[in-house]
Amino acid sequence: MNLPVETRKLTKKxxxxxxxxxxxxxxxxxxxxxxxxxxxxxxxxxxxxLLGLIKASxxxxxxxxxxxxxxxxxxxxxxxxxxxxxxxxxxxxxNLRVMAKYAGVPDSRVSEVLELVDLAQRGKDRYSTYSLxxxxxxxxxxxxxxxxxxxILDEPTNGLDPQGMADMRTLIRGLGSAGCTVLLSSxxxxxxxxxxxxxxxxxxxxxxxxxxxxxxxxxxxxxxxxTPLDKAASVARELLGVEAVRVVxxxxxxxxxxxxxxxxxxELVKADVAVSxxxxxxxxxxxIFFELTGEELSHVG
Length: 301
Ligand SMILES: Nc1ncnc2c1ncn2[C@@H]1O[C@H](COP(=O)(O)OP(=O)(O)OP(=O)(O)O)[C@@H](O)[C@H]1O
Description:
Structural class: alpha/beta
Order of helices and strands: EEEEHEHEHHHEHEHEEHEHEEHEH
Protein name: ABC transporter related protein
CATH architecture of the largest domain: 3-Layer(aba) Sandwich
Keywords: ATP-binding, Nucleotide-binding, Transport
CATH topology of the largest domain: Rossmann fold
Family: Belongs to the ABC transporter superfamily.
Pfam families: ABC_tran
Number of strands: 14
Strand content: 25-35%
Radius of gyration: 23 Å
Number of domains: 2
CATH superfamily of the largest domain: P-loop containing nucleotide triphosphate hydrolases
GO molecular function, one term: ATP hydrolysis activity
Bound molecules: adenosine-5'-triphosphate
């Protein structure tokens, strides 16, 4: 079976700017994949290449086993990338019917997709009266008209209020459970943590890591509260290396396996450090992102 998305050394340059830098992404069938990174990391540029809207400078992208932008590919990939454009004076349903007719999709599918995005009750209302969240969901409905195998969504909750975000998350999770592969970009950690099976973390156009959310979070970490903290930090750096030690507020975060904690404790005590707490803890994506990129992500979502 073809992978929904596979890129090899995918690169896009704009003059001196390398917007996407030798990206190797793999999206597997049936998963909700989160493409996570701060503004300007190269997410939109990547998605545009996957849809054949712009050409790569070098490297390759395969989408459902084909080169992006071929006729066959376009009918099997749904996308919401630049804000959806609809006729404001037509109802949501009429807008979709116009699109369905143009795409050769039977009218019955319009009701199905309105149901899927929870707009069946408001289908008769004018598009101009919709909230931003409803407009976004109608955009997803339009992308679903052709029953795509892969749905690509660029920042699907951008600009939505908390309720709109929650509705969109429910919708995306539902699509994922129904077997549609979803690739979405986001700069919102909370969102990705809640919706996605796997994430690709991107920074400055480069892929920093690609993993399941569960695996990323399960990587062992030990939190140490001790006095004096600066001495504890320097002992830990000597024992574990500078990279493995981070001072956070009034404690240390150490990248170390849990079975090493007795040894670590003994070494700290030997160095006259009073250890009041030493325990392994599950990190959230925010910590991981900061460790990997040195950048902060947004807390919203
Ligand atoms: N058409 C273009 N011409 C020149 N530079 C561009 C163009 N499109 C994107 N860039 C640059 O490429 C880099 C990546 O932009 P991109 O929009 O892909 O990032 P992003 O991760 O999607 O961020 P955002 O969420 O802010 O859109 C940025 O430095 C951006 O300024």
